[in-house]
Amino acid sequence: MNLQMTFPVWLNADILSGPVDADTKPVDSKQFLSLANKTLPESTLSVGWTTRYGIQNVIFSGNYSEAQIDEMIKSVSNTSQPITYPVRAGLAAGDITVWSKLLNSTADKNATLTIWSTEGDKVDVDQLIKLIQEVGYDRVYVDVPEKLRKQLAGSATSASISTFVLLSSIFLGNVLLANLF
Fold first, then answer.
1. Environment class of residue 95 by beta-carbon count within 10 Å: exposed (0-12), middle (13-18) or buried (19+)?
2. How do residues 119-131 score in pLDDT, each as one tens digit?
3. pLDDT surpasses 70 at 17
4. Could you give the maximum distance between any two Cα atoms of the chain, in Å?
5. 3-class SS at 78?
6. Among 147, 142, 83, residue whose Cα is nearest residue 116
7. Sign of the CA dihedral running 24, 29, 35, 41
8. DSSP state of 27
9. How many helices (H) and strands (E) are present in the chain, helices listed first?
10. Whether the predicted pLDDT of 172 surpasses 80
11. pTM for the whole thing?
């Protein structure tokens, strides 16, 4: 099947078990990656980890381990499609070094992070800002509730974060809307 895509498409799946003993079963990574490549090779893969965190689970600490990062690197090693890694804000801000390792070890040298959270997640805003700055504004998307978005924009010492958060939110909104039509 050769579809002519006229808008960006992201295919999202939790392909690995993630932080804090996540009990949600991930999708089969090999099958997902194979089908994505065969069916929509022009799409961006949004591949991440299952998580157990936040107000629903009454868990407010944890982080992605180096072993989980290594497993992701291995899982996507043969992937030629663009990749964004969705990472939960409250868990991702805890260890900035693992994200540099992940992005630098991915075959797609333009790989990005999509930082997301849900209402009620505990997020260290200052650490999250450091993470965004360390990774680079051009390699991070933000998909967070309004309250956290405003905190990120309001805590910034430079206009870059505020502009970045706004543009990132608009881009993700457009991507999500495009997938509806």
1. middle
2. 888 888 999 999 9
3. yes
4. 49
5. coil
6. 142
7. positive
8. P
9. 7, 5
10. no
11. 0.81
